[in-house]
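USER: Fancy drafting a protein?

ASSISTANT:
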Amino acid sequence: MRHTLMLNLDEALALQLDELSQHFRLSAEDTTRQAIRTAHALHRAGKNAPECKPHNTKHDMDNGGPSPF
């Protein structure tokens, strides 16, 4: 099932999120989760940007180790 999620991000944050997604090859779900966590962190005073915690992929679970991607 496909879901559509619209986020209101400024241009700089959208570019940063896109670069992170491509560099770390994040899934759409992990990219969305990171965008939401970052947006919440921006509204909290004195907090740093959240840590990116991608889910294990099927490849990770099959081999018992991190994915090469």
User: Anything to note?
Assistant: Residues 28-43 form the longest helix (16 residues). The chain has a mean pLDDT of 74. The CA atoms of residues 14 and 35 lie 9 Å apart.
